[in-house]
TrEMBL record:
Compartments, as annotated in UniProt: Cytoplasm
Any one Pfam family match given in the protein's UniProt record, by short name: Sua5_C
PROSITE patterns: YRDC
Protein name: Threonylcarbamoyl-AMP synthase
List of residues binding L-threonine: T29, H61, R115, A135, S175
Gene behind this protein: ywlC
Native species: Meiothermus luteus
Amino acids binding ATP: R52, T111, S137, S145, R188, Y224
Protein family according to the UniProt entry: Belongs to the SUA5 family.
Amino acid sequence: MVVLPTEENLQRAAALLRLGGLVAFPTETVYGLGASALDAQAVARIFETKGRPTFDPLIVHVAERGMLPQVVEAVPPLAEELMDRFWPGPLTLVLPKSGRVPSLVTAGLPTVAVRMPAHPVALELIRRAGVPVAAPSANPFGYLSPTRAEHVERTLGGRVDLIVDGGRTQFGVESTILWLGERPLLLRHGAVPLEALEEVLGPVELQVGPKQRPLVPGQLPQHYAPRTPIRLAYPHEVAPEERKEAGYLAFRDVPKGFKVVKVLSPTGDLREAAAHLFEALHQLDRLSLKAIYAEPVPEVGLGRAIMDRLRRASN
Ligand code: TXA
Ligand code: MG
């Protein structure tokens, strides 16, 4: 059931979380499928509902730093500094895990991924639930991420206890994931651009992309994919015959000859493009096209996250 984030509905959603239920809720990145991070049985339902392999660890969401001792063992000074700068916001930090977090959440790893979302509904929900909330994106495993409540409803609707509708998400791509070991390691490009992290940290080592050996099994080379076959290609690389039956996901300009075209940002703004990425793919995927072609975008700022998602979708 989809409900608006009224006082009453938030109270109900929070109670569901406390009692081991599954609640889909908006964050500033994508919609999350939440359960109490301290309740192994509730977390097991997340994996079951998404069809997600249990070797793929979850991100734990907190509403205030006071919740961190329930989740992590210690907060190193560098993490503190990053939280000052980027929280609440789309930066996930991988830190040593507390004994209270069930190992199902972290896929048996000694570390846990944690973030404080910058969305009033998410924050209010977690605060009221009074427990840290484990939440992957609220989509079937491997499929496009949800940026609207209706995306969740259409794919997981009957299987979650409640979907809280907070409208379209702001960033449209997932959080950036940073591992804080001996030195920081970027595990996933996301809504906080690498450039912003490097302002604080200096040059950051990357562990991203299909060619890297994954540090955790969760970094799968194929992911975020529509059901329609998708390929990265500039318009001129697609034969005129193929265009007639294909959709094109354009960055800024409308190419000729395609059956349908979605433009991510007419002004060429990468933030706007990221915010529209999954929504445009959801729309194209519903048209029973023979193929979707996606235009490469510049790999700077949010363009890195966009290209990461498109590469994996097309693998
Ligand atoms: O923006 C987001 O991060 C969204 C919203 C809902 O917050 N959540 C999200 O979760 O994208 P999910 O499940 O789609 O991505 C979780 C990924 C895993 O696949 C893995 O790559 C990484 O986070 N991860 C989780 N725990 C980890 C750990 N202990 N060490 C390294 N990576 C970890
Ligand atoms: Mg996901």
